[in-house]
Amino acid sequence: MSASQIFNFFICPGGIFAIFFGLVLVSLERIAVARFQGRVGPPIFQNIFDVIKLITKEVMIPKDATNRFFFLLAPVFGFAGMVAAVSVIPVAGVSSGLGANSDLIVLIYLLALPAVSHILGGSSSGSTYSAVSVSREVVLMFAYEITFIIVIFTVALAAGNGNGAVFSLQQIVDYQLTNGSFISDPRMLPALFAFLIFMLATLEVPPFHIAENDADVIKGYLMEYSGRPLALFEMTHALKLLVLITVLQIFFFPGIAANNPVANLLWYMFKSGVIVFLIALIHACMASFRVDQAFKFLLTVPVVLALASLGMVLFL
Amino acid sequence: MKPKEKEIKKSYRAPIGPIHIALEEPVYFKLDLQGETVKGVDILSGFVHRGMEALVLRRNYLQNMIITERTCSLCSNNHPFTYILAVEKIADITPPPRAQYLRVIADEIKRAASHLINISLQAHLIGFHSLMTQTMETREILQDIKETIWGNRMDLSANTIGGVKYDLDQERQKYLIKKLTQIRKPLKRVLNIFKTNSMVRLRTEGVGVIPKEDGLRLGIVGPCARGSGINNDIRDINPYAAYPDLDFEVVLEHGCDVRSRTLVRVREVYQAINLVEQCLKKLPDGPVRTPNLPRINEGEGVARTEAPRGELFYYVKSNGSDKPERIKWRVPTYMHWEALTVAMPGNKLADTAVIFNSIDPCISCTER
Amino acid sequence: MLLSKYATKSPWLFRINTGSCNGCDVELATTALIPRFDVERLGCKYTGSPKHADIVLITGPVTARSENYLKRMLVEIPEPRVIVAIGICAISGGVFKDSYSIRGPVDKYVDVDVNVSGCPVRPQSILDGVAKAIEIWKEKIEQFHEG
Ligand code: SF4
């Protein structure tokens, strides 16, 4: 590992920067939603304060936890997965990530880890709410992963441009930097929408605020967590948001601002902010599905959109 | 496709409550679930039992106006109001006409505020947070009215035996009219969202159905009954105070589901505003209460009014002393408990809170 | 201490209703939700799980039936925490004081840090109470980490 790779992994854009920026993005989303509702909203560093606060709190392990070891392991599991994911993905014009040939496949696995950690933690915490919420998460996961995989194939094939599929994130970025972003390619637009829906579903933003819907399962799988494990979950969520936003940019608009890493980093942050804003807009003007409705929706609309793109990429 | 049933075959019991963020008040449900589908409900209650029917016997008639108000702050005007109507029947007091109109004004403002809270909780439970905040913000205009005119945001203490405790001078009337015109616009927006938004429809249509026959059998009242097409609006079928002189139409919806109950409430908010405006136009001059302290003779009296949640019934028995011998009240939510066993089974777990809220439960009234 | 300074910017609120008349609860909801008061701008967030709570808002006079639930809930709330009694009922029992089914007031069960009075309390005084609770919470965090 070269010095620059270590820097990329620990400081920027992975590691510390990613956690920090991810948390700010989560707060940004909260602020945007609050503003859409006419409120002021929390300060911009709110989620960082939340994490600091949680570190000062007592850690409680529920008496009826079915498995104390998994209960405490689960948050670490998801967090580690997301830290790895951050280091795998390149940021256009800033770092090249892992640079391996098929890191896209690795990403599919890594992105499933937070959900798996929810399932692991929720089912070992021994609370009914967690159990219900976990069963919902499983249902949704089956539904949205299909979309994700189809979108990935579409993008990989489009980046291969007739010569098979490209599963290297850096090559996908490079292809778009030379041949124009996929967002300007009408064949890819349905896939873009499908990916957006997938993002909302994984992030559990309305209309997919289901597995931790406070109207029935309260906090769901997070119900029994407190203190540091909860802080890990919060950070995992922030990193997940960041990873998804970055992947969205890699897939569809990796354009860079200049030939300067700092400027590119700022440009990347700006784009991320805009995407968060979009998510907040959807969050603010939507009600939530019921789990069965969401399942049906996720199996039809985004899948059809993604398949349409795939077909067009293959045959046009 | 029924994915959940494959995952969890066995049926299990899920507790909801007693302290649950989605419920305004503590109540304990035991749901029999199969996957996510509700098979049966069991309701454990008594968490808000404060022994009020015993407490009121230890207070005199005037003190009881305060304590009945604390039965429930959402319908806090109707409790003392109905109690006072019953006492007035015993003491044979007729309040002056101006007081009758002022009573209706207080009543309708409270009704509108209570309905708006229920609607906004409804929006919250289907996950529509912006709609909830907007509805709450609309309600805040009514809260302002209450605080300016009666001096408290929830407990108005508007009524007293033989009249009302407040008066509306020219300035306050103007203020009231101004605020009421102000509320119309946001209200219209909210109503439109409830009527047309497809996500809202998806979550509320066909959910928690109480068919008309079951409604009649269980004796449901208020907006719940009107949502099932049953007219038992006490203001219409047995008018009291100034309602006989006012002109209004009973709101009826025929969907029998959560959506039609919500729509009834939204439309009744409009109706309430209309009624207040009518009252202000017709408001007669004169005193607002009978001059002397009442003397309550031996006797019994009953009264019923239309509270925001439905028919409220008070029975008062007096033995000639300054304290009542027995006060008994029957509240609307009591009948709606039973209606839940019709409305809930067959729905999804995610809808239980929505259905529960749609009967506009007032647990603190029911358990007192 | 730096830690307590930043930690206190994120108070999570948890509400326990021990048999109130709704008045105080509705006012709490109003304070939380509507744009005019908006507690989120103080960093507050309502949470549904007692395990996440920092500031506990208790309403109601503690009825016989909810007594056990209150006790159980209080055990589940991690230290350092601040208890706020909302409304006259929670502070003294209010109009229900000498009833047979009232076991309260709240400070029989737990040390109450802040009393917010009113029947019902006004949103403004709730905000004031929360602000006071944050001050107390800061001291508690420091104590918690020293001893
Ligand atoms: S203090 Fe007053 S308003 Fe609050 S719960 Fe008690 S009786 Fe109700």
General description of the model:
The complex is a heterotrimer of chains A (316), B (368) and C (147). By secondary structure, chain A is mainly alpha-helical. Chain A has one domain. Helices cover 69% and strands 0% of the residues of chain A. In chain A, α2 packs across α9, α4 runs parallel beside α9 and α6 packs parallel to α11. Chain A is globular. Chain B is built from 15 helices and eight strands. In chain B, α5 runs antiparallel to α6 and α5 runs antiparallel to α12. Chain B has a single domain, classed as Cytochrome-c3 Hydrogenase, chain B. Chain C has 147 residues and is of the alpha/beta class. In chain C, α2 crosses α5. Chain C is globular. The model of chain C has no long low-confidence stretch (mean pLDDT 81). The chains are: A mainly alpha (316), B alpha+beta (368), C alpha/beta (147). At the B-C interface, α2 and α6 of B face β1 and α2 of C. Iron/sulfur cluster (SF4) binds next to α2 and α4 of chain C.
| β-strand number of chain B | 8
Rg of chain B computed from alpha carbons, rounded to a whole number of angstroms: 21 Å
Q: How many individual domains of chain C?
A: 1
Whole-number total of structural domains of chain B: 1
Name the assembly state: heterotrimer
Helix content of chain B: 40-55%
CATH class of chain C: Alpha Beta
Instruction: Write the CATH fold name of chain C.
Output: Rossmann fold
Question: Describe the biggest sheet of chain C?
Answer: 5 strands, parallel
What count of helical segments of chain C does DSSP give? 5
**In the CATH classification, which architecture of chain B applies?**
Orthogonal Bundle
Portion in strands of chain B: 5-15%
CATH topology type of chain B: Cytochrome-c3 Hydrogenase, chain B
Number of helices of chain B: 15
